[in-house]
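User: Hey, quick favor. My workstation is busy. Could you predict this chain's structure for me?
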Amino acid sequence: MAKKTKEARVQVILECTEHKNSGQPGTSRYITTKNKKNTPERLEIKKYNPILRKMTVHREIK
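Assistant: No problem, here it is.
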């Protein structure tokens, strides 16, 4: 029988930080996966925000 292992990769949601502060309607969110063992802290990635039409910092939300 195969050994049961705990999954290291989890699905996370990234939300734009600048869009939340701008007061405009809507949200810019991306879904991605991360390895919990290698990166236990929250992800912070620059992604494109189509509403603001520029690259912005997207931070992981719970």
